[in-house]
Amino acid sequence: DQPPISRPQVALEQLHMASFLHTKMPSAARNLWFRLIHNKVSAKANTAHILRLPDDLCINCGVRETTTHFLFTCPSIEEVWINYFALVFVPTEPLRLGSVYDNVMALNLSSYRLLDSDLKITVFEAFTCILTAIWRAKWLFFFESVDSSNESITDRAMISLRRLSSLNICN
Questions:
Q1: Which terminus, N or C, of the chain has the lesser number of Cβ atoms within 10 Å?
Q2: How remote is the C-alpha of 59 from its chain's centroid?
Q3: Distance, CA of 89 to CA of 69 (rounded, Å)
Q4: Please, are residues 40 and 70 in contact by the beta-carbon 8 Å criterion?
């Protein structure tokens, strides 16, 4: 018997949903957002019973690997978020990943400001790149035993960000 998976109550405001729906992103990234909003990200807490894993604990820190933990609050990826925020967003207050998770779940990213740069991106696209990079790194490790450093995860997010920007400039 597995403990019930808690589903966060998400109140998506129409304005935030409209901004999200108008954001251009690859279908794999949109799929990740959909899974995140509906608590269907393939974190161990959601998949341990399906994959017949011995437990639902994070291999990095031993805490139950929920969606929140998997993408936001695991100490092993805190440096990724800190470095990415320093490269992409205007610092406004100390970074609290629990708050970032709450804002992402509500699609309320209006308090985040991008640094001035030549990149033509939206805040949603910036978040999409880091979430996708973290998700890919975790699953590369799980399925192919490929270990990713925090720097390589941040680099992958920045490469995706530049690619999105170049697509936006062409359109």
A1: N
A2: 18
A3: 22
A4: no
pLDDT digits (tens, 9 = 90+) for 19-42: 677 766 777 778 888 888 877 788
Angle made by CA atoms 157, 161, 162, in degrees to the nearest 5: 120
**Model pTM above 0.85:** no
The residues, any chain, with a CB within 8 Å of residue 123's CB and separated by 6 or more, are 109, 110, 112, 113, 114
Write out pLDDT tens, residues 85-113: 999 999 988 899 989 999 988 888 889 99
Q: Which amino acid type is present at position 117? A: S
Per the rule left: phi > 0, alpha: psi between -120 and 50, beta: everything else, 63 is: beta
Residue in the structure block whose two tokens are 């995140």: 36
The CB density around residue 49, as the number of other CB atoms within 10 Å, is 13
The position carrying tokens 């959909």 is 34
CB 124 within 8 A of CB 29: no
CB count in 10 Å sphere of residue 76: 13
